[in-house]
């Protein structure tokens, strides 16, 4: 058993953009095939550029605010309560072009 008091975790910069802060609840190798589980907040104007993961699915659940995901060149606006899954190999980016913060929880599952 492992209990994490997430309000006590430090906020760290994301791999794709150090200015975007996240908390990692579960790290890679703590649970087989789970790459990470955490939360992130994008302030207005923050974004992660186009990238892909060849051996990982990513799942994002929007807690508050709204954001824009671009997956394989198609734009998807997401709002609180939406859940979006990015499949392995899909080109994707995320950004917050809106006037309020957007926060989500997310996890990645390895396929290799």
Word description of this protein:
With 112 residues, the chain is mainly β. A hairpin with a 7-residue loop joins strand 1 (12-13) and strand 2 (21-26). It is 0% helix and 54% strand. It is built from no helices and 10 strands.
Quick overview of this protein structure:
With 112 residues, the protein is mostly beta strands.
Set out the fold topology:
Layout: E1 12-13, E2 21-26, E3 34-42, E4 47-51, E5 56-64, E6 66-71, E7 74-79, E8 83-86, E9 92-95, E10 102-110
Antiparallel strand pairs: 1-2, 2-3, 3-10, 4-9, 5-8, 5-10, 6-7, 6-9
Name the poorly predicted regions: none
Structural class by SSE content: mainly beta
By DSSP (H or I, 4+ residues per run), the number of helices equals 0
Instruction: Give the CA-CA distance, first to last residue.
Output: 26 Å
- Rg value: 14 Å
Tally of strands: 10
Biggest sheet overview: 6 strands, antiparallel
Order of helices and strands: EEEEEEEEEE
From the structure provided, what is the oligomeric state, counting identical versus distinct chains? single chain
Q: Report the sheet-strand fraction.
A: over 45%
Describe the global form: globular
- Specify the helix fraction band: under 10%
Mean pLDDT: 95
């Amino acid at each position: 058993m492992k209990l994490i008091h997430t309000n006590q975790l430090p906020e760290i910069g994301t791999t794709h953009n150090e200015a975007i802060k996240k908390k990692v609840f579960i790290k890679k190798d703590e649970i087989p095939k789970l790459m990470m589980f955490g939360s992130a907040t994008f302030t207005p104007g923050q974004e992660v550029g186009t990238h892909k993961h060849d051996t990982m699915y990513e799942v994002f659940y929007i807690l508050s605010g709204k954001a824009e995901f671009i997956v394989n060149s198609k734009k998807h606006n997401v709002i609180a309560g939406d859940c979006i899954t990015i499949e392995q190999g899909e080109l994707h980016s995320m950004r917050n072009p809106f006037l309020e913060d957007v926060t989500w929880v997310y996890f990645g599952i390895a396929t290799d």
